Amino acid sequence: MNDTAKRFLPSRLDFTTFKAKHFLWEVDGKVATVTLNRPERKNPLTLDSYAELRDTFRDLVYSDAIKTVVVTGAGGNFCSGGDVHEIIGPLVEMQRKDDMAGLLAFTRMTGDLVKAMRACPQPIVAAVDGVCAGAGAILAMASDLRYGTARSKVAFLFVRVGLAGADMGACNILPRIVGAGRAAELLYTGRSMDGPEAERWGFYNKLCEPEAVLADAQAVAKSLADGPTFAHAMTKKCIHQEWNMGIDEAIEAEAQAQAICMQTKDYERAYLAFVNKQRPTFAGN
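The structure corresponding to this sequence follows.
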Protein backbone atom coordinates (compact mmCIF):
# COMPACT_ATOMS: atom_id res chain seq x y z
CA MET A 1 0.00 0.00 0.00
CA ASN A 2 1.46 3.38 -0.97
CA ASP A 3 1.72 6.37 1.34
CA THR A 4 -1.09 8.23 -0.40
CA ALA A 5 -3.52 5.36 0.15
CA LYS A 6 -2.51 5.07 3.81
CA ARG A 7 -3.55 8.68 4.42
CA PHE A 8 -7.19 7.72 3.90
CA LEU A 9 -7.19 4.80 6.35
CA PRO A 10 -7.84 4.95 10.10
CA SER A 11 -4.85 4.85 12.42
CA ARG A 12 -4.82 1.27 13.63
CA LEU A 13 -2.71 -1.07 15.70
CA ASP A 14 0.66 -2.36 14.57
CA PHE A 15 -0.21 -6.04 14.62
CA THR A 16 3.42 -7.13 14.68
CA THR A 17 3.76 -5.61 18.17
CA PHE A 18 0.12 -5.93 19.29
CA LYS A 19 -0.45 -7.46 22.75
CA ALA A 20 -3.96 -8.72 23.33
CA LYS A 21 -5.45 -8.57 26.82
CA HIS A 22 -7.90 -11.46 26.65
CA PHE A 23 -6.20 -14.03 24.39
CA LEU A 24 -2.71 -14.81 23.13
CA TRP A 25 -1.55 -13.14 19.92
CA GLU A 26 1.58 -14.39 18.18
CA VAL A 27 2.98 -13.41 14.79
CA ASP A 28 5.30 -15.59 12.74
CA GLY A 29 6.16 -13.82 9.52
CA LYS A 30 2.85 -12.98 7.84
CA VAL A 31 0.78 -15.45 9.94
CA ALA A 32 -0.92 -14.43 13.19
CA THR A 33 -2.13 -17.05 15.68
CA VAL A 34 -4.97 -16.29 18.11
CA THR A 35 -4.97 -18.67 21.09
CA LEU A 36 -7.92 -18.69 23.48
CA ASN A 37 -6.04 -19.12 26.72
CA ARG A 38 -8.17 -20.18 29.67
CA PRO A 39 -7.29 -23.89 29.59
CA GLU A 40 -8.44 -24.59 33.15
CA ARG A 41 -12.02 -23.97 31.96
CA LYS A 42 -11.66 -25.16 28.38
CA ASN A 43 -11.17 -21.63 27.01
CA PRO A 44 -14.63 -20.07 27.42
CA LEU A 45 -15.33 -16.62 26.02
CA THR A 46 -16.10 -13.63 28.21
CA LEU A 47 -17.73 -10.30 27.40
CA ASP A 48 -14.26 -8.77 27.16
CA SER A 49 -12.76 -11.49 24.96
CA TYR A 50 -15.76 -11.36 22.61
CA ALA A 51 -15.29 -7.61 22.22
CA GLU A 52 -11.53 -7.76 21.81
CA LEU A 53 -11.79 -10.51 19.19
CA ARG A 54 -14.40 -8.47 17.33
CA ASP A 55 -12.23 -5.35 17.39
CA THR A 56 -9.12 -7.28 16.38
CA PHE A 57 -10.74 -8.80 13.30
CA ARG A 58 -12.24 -5.43 12.40
CA ASP A 59 -8.82 -3.77 12.58
CA LEU A 60 -7.17 -6.51 10.51
CA VAL A 61 -8.87 -4.95 7.49
CA TYR A 62 -6.18 -2.26 7.70
CA SER A 63 -3.16 -4.52 8.24
CA ASP A 64 -0.54 -4.87 5.53
CA ALA A 65 1.66 -7.15 7.64
CA ILE A 66 -0.78 -9.96 8.53
CA LYS A 67 -1.89 -12.10 5.59
CA THR A 68 -3.52 -15.09 7.31
CA VAL A 69 -4.84 -15.88 10.80
CA VAL A 70 -4.99 -19.15 12.76
CA VAL A 71 -7.48 -19.50 15.63
CA THR A 72 -6.92 -22.20 18.25
CA GLY A 73 -7.30 -22.99 21.95
CA ALA A 74 -4.87 -23.85 24.72
CA GLY A 75 -4.62 -27.04 26.74
CA GLY A 76 -6.14 -29.55 24.32
CA ASN A 77 -9.49 -27.81 23.83
CA PHE A 78 -10.71 -25.20 21.37
CA CYS A 79 -13.48 -23.31 23.17
CA SER A 80 -16.32 -24.35 25.47
CA GLY A 81 -18.53 -21.40 24.49
CA GLY A 82 -19.69 -18.49 26.63
CA ASP A 83 -18.46 -18.50 30.21
CA VAL A 84 -21.29 -19.70 32.47
CA HIS A 85 -20.45 -17.31 35.30
CA GLU A 86 -19.22 -14.28 33.35
CA ILE A 87 -21.78 -14.33 30.51
CA ILE A 88 -24.74 -16.63 31.09
CA GLY A 89 -25.27 -15.56 34.69
CA PRO A 90 -25.39 -11.83 33.84
CA LEU A 91 -27.69 -12.54 30.88
CA VAL A 92 -30.13 -14.40 33.14
CA GLU A 93 -30.07 -11.40 35.48
CA MET A 94 -30.93 -9.13 32.51
CA GLN A 95 -33.83 -11.45 31.70
CA ARG A 96 -35.10 -11.19 35.26
CA LYS A 97 -35.02 -7.40 34.95
CA ASP A 98 -36.78 -7.47 31.57
CA ASP A 99 -33.71 -5.78 30.09
CA MET A 100 -34.46 -6.56 26.45
CA ALA A 101 -32.19 -3.74 25.29
CA GLY A 102 -29.25 -5.23 27.19
CA LEU A 103 -29.90 -8.73 25.87
CA LEU A 104 -30.13 -7.45 22.30
CA ALA A 105 -26.95 -5.41 22.70
CA PHE A 106 -25.13 -8.60 23.75
CA THR A 107 -26.46 -10.79 20.93
CA ARG A 108 -25.65 -8.09 18.37
CA MET A 109 -22.12 -7.77 19.75
CA THR A 110 -21.51 -11.52 19.40
CA GLY A 111 -22.88 -11.45 15.87
CA ASP A 112 -20.55 -8.55 15.10
CA LEU A 113 -17.61 -10.88 15.81
CA VAL A 114 -18.76 -13.21 13.02
CA LYS A 115 -19.30 -10.24 10.71
CA ALA A 116 -15.77 -9.05 11.44
CA MET A 117 -14.30 -12.49 10.73
CA ARG A 118 -16.12 -12.62 7.41
CA ALA A 119 -15.19 -9.06 6.46
CA CYS A 120 -11.46 -9.18 7.17
CA PRO A 121 -9.50 -9.97 4.00
CA GLN A 122 -7.21 -12.53 5.65
CA PRO A 123 -8.17 -16.20 5.32
CA ILE A 124 -8.84 -17.63 8.80
CA VAL A 125 -7.86 -21.22 9.65
CA ALA A 126 -9.31 -22.85 12.78
CA ALA A 127 -7.21 -25.53 14.51
CA VAL A 128 -9.74 -27.49 16.59
CA ASP A 129 -9.01 -30.07 19.26
CA GLY A 130 -11.10 -31.25 22.19
CA VAL A 131 -14.21 -29.29 23.13
CA CYS A 132 -15.62 -26.96 20.45
CA ALA A 133 -19.05 -26.00 21.71
CA GLY A 134 -21.59 -23.19 21.53
CA ALA A 135 -19.85 -19.96 20.62
CA GLY A 136 -16.67 -21.99 20.12
CA ALA A 137 -18.39 -23.96 17.37
CA ILE A 138 -19.47 -20.64 15.86
CA LEU A 139 -15.85 -19.39 15.82
CA ALA A 140 -14.82 -22.54 13.96
CA MET A 141 -17.83 -22.24 11.61
CA ALA A 142 -17.01 -18.60 10.82
CA SER A 143 -13.43 -19.47 9.88
CA ASP A 144 -12.58 -20.09 6.23
CA LEU A 145 -10.87 -23.44 6.78
CA ARG A 146 -11.15 -25.89 9.67
CA TYR A 147 -8.58 -28.48 10.71
CA GLY A 148 -9.70 -30.86 13.45
CA THR A 149 -8.82 -34.00 15.36
CA ALA A 150 -10.60 -37.33 15.73
CA ARG A 151 -11.13 -36.74 19.44
CA SER A 152 -12.65 -33.28 19.03
CA LYS A 153 -16.33 -32.68 19.83
CA VAL A 154 -18.23 -29.99 17.94
CA ALA A 155 -21.64 -29.02 19.33
CA PHE A 156 -24.01 -26.17 18.50
CA LEU A 157 -25.63 -26.68 21.87
CA PHE A 158 -27.78 -23.55 22.19
CA VAL A 159 -31.02 -25.57 22.32
CA ARG A 160 -29.68 -27.40 25.36
CA VAL A 161 -29.76 -24.15 27.34
CA GLY A 162 -33.23 -23.21 26.12
CA LEU A 163 -32.16 -21.04 23.19
CA ALA A 164 -32.73 -21.24 19.45
CA GLY A 165 -30.12 -22.74 17.18
CA ALA A 166 -30.28 -19.36 15.42
CA ASP A 167 -27.19 -17.79 16.96
CA MET A 168 -24.45 -15.65 15.42
CA GLY A 169 -25.43 -16.63 11.88
CA ALA A 170 -25.54 -20.41 12.42
CA CYS A 171 -28.83 -20.88 10.54
CA ASN A 172 -27.32 -19.12 7.53
CA ILE A 173 -23.71 -20.33 7.50
CA LEU A 174 -23.83 -23.90 8.83
CA PRO A 175 -26.22 -25.22 6.12
CA ARG A 176 -23.82 -23.91 3.49
CA ILE A 177 -21.01 -25.96 5.03
CA VAL A 178 -22.70 -29.26 5.92
CA GLY A 179 -26.05 -29.06 4.09
CA ALA A 180 -29.50 -28.00 5.28
CA GLY A 181 -30.66 -31.35 6.67
CA ARG A 182 -27.48 -31.98 8.65
CA ALA A 183 -27.41 -28.43 9.96
CA ALA A 184 -31.04 -28.74 11.07
CA GLU A 185 -30.22 -31.90 13.03
CA LEU A 186 -27.25 -30.28 14.76
CA LEU A 187 -29.15 -27.08 15.58
CA TYR A 188 -32.37 -28.79 16.75
CA THR A 189 -30.69 -31.43 18.91
CA GLY A 190 -27.52 -29.69 20.11
CA ARG A 191 -25.70 -33.01 19.86
CA SER A 192 -21.96 -33.19 19.29
CA MET A 193 -20.07 -34.39 16.22
CA ASP A 194 -16.83 -36.24 16.69
CA GLY A 195 -13.94 -35.57 14.35
CA PRO A 196 -14.57 -38.30 11.76
CA GLU A 197 -18.23 -37.30 11.41
CA ALA A 198 -17.30 -33.61 11.18
CA GLU A 199 -14.84 -34.39 8.40
CA ARG A 200 -17.31 -36.67 6.60
CA TRP A 201 -19.97 -33.97 6.71
CA GLY A 202 -17.56 -31.36 5.36
CA PHE A 203 -17.22 -29.28 8.53
CA TYR A 204 -13.53 -30.14 8.75
CA ASN A 205 -11.26 -29.78 5.74
CA LYS A 206 -8.81 -32.23 7.27
CA LEU A 207 -8.33 -34.46 10.32
CA CYS A 208 -4.96 -34.22 12.06
CA GLU A 209 -3.26 -35.81 15.02
CA PRO A 210 -3.81 -33.79 18.21
CA GLU A 211 -0.14 -32.96 18.55
CA ALA A 212 0.02 -31.80 14.92
CA VAL A 213 -3.27 -29.95 14.33
CA LEU A 214 -1.94 -26.48 15.18
CA ALA A 215 1.24 -26.96 13.15
CA ASP A 216 -0.79 -28.26 10.20
CA ALA A 217 -3.14 -25.28 10.37
CA GLN A 218 -0.21 -22.88 10.61
CA ALA A 219 1.47 -24.59 7.65
CA VAL A 220 -1.55 -24.08 5.40
CA ALA A 221 -1.86 -20.52 6.69
CA LYS A 222 1.79 -19.88 5.80
CA SER A 223 1.26 -21.37 2.36
CA LEU A 224 -1.66 -19.01 1.78
CA ALA A 225 0.33 -16.08 3.18
CA ASP A 226 3.13 -16.81 0.70
CA GLY A 227 0.66 -16.84 -2.18
CA PRO A 228 -1.13 -14.05 -4.07
CA THR A 229 -2.76 -12.56 -0.98
CA PHE A 230 -4.60 -9.78 -2.82
CA ALA A 231 -6.24 -12.49 -4.89
CA HIS A 232 -7.00 -14.57 -1.76
CA ALA A 233 -8.74 -11.57 -0.24
CA MET A 234 -10.78 -11.19 -3.41
CA THR A 235 -11.73 -14.87 -3.32
CA LYS A 236 -12.90 -14.55 0.28
CA LYS A 237 -14.96 -11.48 -0.52
CA CYS A 238 -16.60 -13.19 -3.50
CA ILE A 239 -17.40 -16.34 -1.53
CA HIS A 240 -19.32 -14.29 1.02
CA GLN A 241 -20.96 -11.62 -1.14
CA GLU A 242 -22.19 -14.11 -3.76
CA TRP A 243 -24.43 -15.87 -1.22
CA ASN A 244 -27.03 -13.22 -1.97
CA MET A 245 -26.62 -13.23 -5.75
CA GLY A 246 -28.11 -15.11 -8.64
CA ILE A 247 -25.71 -16.90 -10.98
CA ASP A 248 -25.70 -14.11 -13.57
CA GLU A 249 -24.87 -11.48 -10.94
CA ALA A 250 -22.19 -13.75 -9.48
CA ILE A 251 -20.55 -14.29 -12.85
CA GLU A 252 -20.46 -10.53 -13.44
CA ALA A 253 -19.06 -9.90 -9.94
CA GLU A 254 -16.33 -12.46 -10.56
CA ALA A 255 -15.54 -10.95 -13.95
CA GLN A 256 -14.97 -7.60 -12.25
CA ALA A 257 -12.97 -9.19 -9.44
CA GLN A 258 -10.74 -11.09 -11.84
CA ALA A 259 -10.12 -8.01 -13.97
CA ILE A 260 -8.99 -6.17 -10.84
CA CYS A 261 -6.65 -9.05 -9.94
CA MET A 262 -5.20 -8.95 -13.46
CA GLN A 263 -3.95 -5.45 -12.69
CA THR A 264 -1.73 -6.73 -9.87
CA LYS A 265 1.98 -7.39 -10.20
CA ASP A 266 1.40 -10.90 -8.84
CA TYR A 267 -0.42 -11.78 -12.05
CA GLU A 268 2.54 -10.57 -14.09
CA ARG A 269 4.96 -12.35 -11.75
CA ALA A 270 3.15 -15.64 -12.29
CA TYR A 271 3.31 -15.21 -16.07
CA LEU A 272 7.02 -14.35 -16.11
CA ALA A 273 7.80 -17.28 -13.80
CA PHE A 274 5.91 -19.62 -16.13
CA VAL A 275 7.77 -18.30 -19.18
CA ASN A 276 11.11 -18.74 -17.41
CA LYS A 277 10.12 -22.14 -15.99
CA GLN A 278 10.43 -20.87 -12.42
CA ARG A 279 8.26 -20.95 -9.35
CA PRO A 280 6.50 -17.60 -8.87
CA THR A 281 7.26 -15.49 -5.80
CA PHE A 282 4.19 -13.49 -4.87
CA ALA A 283 4.16 -10.18 -3.01
CA GLY A 284 0.44 -9.62 -2.49
CA ASN A 285 0.18 -6.66 -4.84
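Residues 229-275 form a domain with the Lyase 2-enoyl-coa Hydratase; Chain  A, domain 2 fold (CATH 1.10.12).
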